[in-house]
Amino acid sequence: MKTNTQCRMCKSGRLSLFFDLGETALANSFLSKEALDKPEPKYPLKVYFCEDCGLSQLIHVVEPEVLFRNYVYFSSGMPVLPEHFRKYAEEAVSGYLRSKEELVVEIGSNDGLLLAAIKNLGARALGIDPAVNIAKVANERGVETLPEFFSEKMAEKVAKKYGNAKVMIGNNVVAHINDLHDLLKGAGKLLADDGVFIFEAPYFVDMFENFAFDSIYHEHLSYLSIRPLKNLFEQFGMEIFDVKIFPVQGNSARCYAGRAGKRRVRSSVGELIEKEKKMGLEKLSTHLELVRRLEEMKGKTVKLLTELKARGKKIAAYGSPARGNTLLNYYGIGADILDYATEELPSKIGLYTPGAHIPVIHVAEARKNPPDYFLLLAWNYKDAIFKKEEALVKAGVKFVLPVGIPGVL
Ligand SMILES: [Zn+2]
Predict the structure, then answer these.
(1) Residue 44: beta bridge partners?
(2) How far is ligand 1, taken at its centre, from the CA of residue 228, in Å?
(3) Tens-place pLDDT, residues 125-168
(4) What is the rounded distance in angstroms from the CA atom of residue 82 to the CA atom of residue 287?
């Protein structure tokens, strides 16, 4: 682990701690039964506010080799995403490519879901993803993918071998990268003169509007809002010319950037910066107030679960997403409250959640002998879950919402 002393966007040293989630296990490091007896690596999970550019960030950086070389998150396994990506592909191809010879490069391309859709539309596509296991899956589905971390050096190599990219895409990856100056230099090397860098990331505003604090874990080094991003791109002769907000896994911001002055800057950029200002995102006090609200949510949820447990109710977690581990750890909810957590991804079933050590079972198993209450760890998919579990709801199984206004639904 290394510890930054400067803001990763503006290089200011004026960083103020506002949210300390304690020593925490890695959110995606699910454990085998044998591993439960061994010491579990834990790292500080502390969020700092940059007093100069306003970026919220972790300064304790776990080695990317540890986090991303053998990744358990497969895009294709997630609900909602395929349709979102199909539309995304259409927009990237019809909006920014003029001929089929032009190249689209995606960094952190995962199992190639988006690039496969882009290829289907006839474009040239190249993926770059450090997760060797996942890059293999992408290559097998016919999406050429280099199993590497993106960097300025890598960008030079790719540009030399494949040509400059008309479109560079990065979904849920900018927040993962510690050296953002290297990323921007790389984008500068890889992109064609009129090329566009499109990236999508959870929008920090979501933390204030929907209390999505559980998106805080070691992989997410930056909590992105538009004002600090605008400043970052300007340092490298680039600019963000459009931003769209999408309700996918909470609110995501899709930003469009290019070389400065190449495209008309849309009103969305200024409007969102104005919104962030009105919300007080440039002030530390706003962040401290958020943490006070989170403490309240935590208190209410823990009280409810403890009471249910005292009344002899059986409680399990619905879903075992990475973010759920942040929630369990911060709320201090463990195996004394939860019997198990459900999952559909085969990669997690039979393992134990990091930190809280809750056994993970297939959701089909849970349906056969359901608990009295499910704690909604996958609360951001609440509506889809209710639809899918109609039979359980009819049978009287209750769901507990742990964020927003916590309570039984
Ligand atoms: Zn800064």
Answers:
(1) 23
(2) 7
(3) 999 999 998 999 999 999 999 999 999 999 999 999 999 999 99
(4) 34
Q: How far is residue 101's CA from residue 163's CA, in Å, rounded to a whole number?
A: 10
- Looking at the fold, whether 162 and 256 belong to one and the same domain comes out as yes
Contacts of 301 by beta carbon, 8 Å cutoff, 6+ apart: 331, 333, 400, 402, 406
- 108 Cα–ligand 1 center, Å: 24
Report CA(52)–ligand 1 centroid distance (Å).
5
Geometric angle at alpha carbon 239, from 60 and 156, rounded to 5°: 70
For residue 257, how far is its CA from the centre of ligand 1 (angstroms)? 19
Report d(CA 395, CA 392) in Å as an integer: 5
Asked whether 16 and 56 are in contact (CB, 8 A), the reply is: no
| Total number of domains constituting the chain | 3
Ligand 1 centre distance from Cα of residue 250 (Å):
25
Measured in angstroms, how far is the CA atom of residue 83 from the centroid of ligand 1?
35
Are 43 and 115 in the same domain?
no
Q: Give residues with Cβ within 8 angstroms of 292, minimum separation 6.
A: none
pLDDT, tens digit, 9 for 90 and up, residues 15-57: 999 999 999 999 999 999 999 999 999 999 999 999 999 999 9
Residue 391 token pair: 């039979």
Report how far ligand 1's centroid is from the alpha carbon of 195 (Å): 26
> What pTM does this model have?
0.93
**Ligand 1 centroid vs 57 CA: distance in angstroms?**
9
272 within domain boundaries: no
Residue 312 CA to ligand 1 center (angstroms) comes to: 50
CB 325 within 8 A of CB 301: no
Distance of CA 231 from the midpoint of ligand 1 (Å): 9
24 and 156, same structural domain? no
Q: Note whether 86 and 221 are same-domain residues.
A: yes
